[in-house]
Amino acid sequence: MASPKFQLLSFLWIAGVASAGSMVLHERRAAPPAGFTSRGAAPASEMLTLRVGLASNNINGLQDHLVSVSTPGSTDFRQWLSADDVKAYVQPSPVTIDAFSSFASVNGLQPNVVSPSGDWVSISLSVSQANALFAANFEHFTHPDMTAPLTRTLSLSLPEELVGHVEVLHPTTAFDTPKPRLSASRAAGSRRSRRAIPPDSCLGPEDTITPACLQTLYGIPLTPATQTSNTLLVTGYTENWPQTAALELFLQTFRPDMPSNTTWALESLDGGVDTQGQ
Fold it and tell me: What angle do CA 170, 174, 177 make, to 5 degrees?
C-alpha cells in the first residue's frame, strides 16, 4: 500500500494537471474487478497504444435507416446500403476530425486510422504523457489467471475540447476478465459432462438428426403453429439450390403430418437461380 505522503503527492500531481486545462470526467470505476490487484504505478516510460473511438457524424440516422430497410411497407424496404452509404453515416464529421487532429498535433501525437470509416484511430504515447493528457493514473494490475500484468487506470478525463468528439479511449478502464484455468481432472470432467445421453428420439441410424430429435432436445412444441403470417427465411448460396423433390421426400419421411406438396416462395437476389434436378 502506498504511504499517505505518496497518495497525497499523487493527488496533488493529478489535480495540478487537471487545473492546467479544463478537464471533464469521462470514465471512473471505484475499484478494479474482483480478482485484480494493483501492483503500483506503471513506469513513466512504459509505452501505451490506445485506440480512440471518434464520434460518428450520424449514427442515429444509420440506426433509423437500418430499421426502415428491414420494415415491410416502408418506402426503404430492401433498399440495402452500400459500403459507401454506411461510411457516410459512420465517419466522423470534419469538426470532430479537426478537433482531434489539433489535439494530437499540439501534443506531439501521430494518430493512425485503423477503421475503414475513419472513426477509430490509434495513438502511441508513454504512461507519463497519458497520465498528464487524460488526468489518469495508470497502474499495473495482476490476476491469478493471467501471466502478465495489465496496465490500466481507474479514472479517465478528457480535455474539454474533445468532449463530444471522443467517445471511447481503450484500453483504459476496461479489464479483460480471464477465463478460469481448469485442472486436468476438472477439464476431463467437463468433457464427460458434455457427452450427455441422447433421448430415444435421437437414436437414429448413423446419428441422423431428425425433427423429432430437435423437438425433444430444445423443447419445441409438437402442436402446429397457428400464426399464419409467420415466415421462415432459408438462404441458398452458390450451387446450393432448394429442391422440390428433396423437400417432398423430407416431408414424407419425417413430417407425414404435413402436406407433401408444401412448397416455398422464391426470392432471387443478384441474378440467383433455383435450378431443379441438380
Answer: 130
Residues 170-185 have a mean pLDDT of 72
CA–CA distance, 138 with 136 (Å, rounded to integer) = 6
Give this prediction's pTM. 0.58
**89-148 confidence digits (pLDDT tens):** 999 999 999 999 999 999 999 999 999 999 999 999 999 999 999 999 999 999 998 888
110 burial type by CB count under 10 A (0-12 exposed, 13-18 middle, 19+ buried): exposed
Write down the residue that cell numbers 432459408 correspond to.
234
Residues near 240 by Cβ (< 8 Å), separated by ≥ 6? none
Peptide bond into 171 cis (omega under 30): yes
Domain ranges of the chain: 10-56+91-170, 199-220+234-267
Residue 167 pLDDT greater than 50, yes or no: yes
Distances (CA, A) of 52 to 138, 147, 151: 17, 27, 17
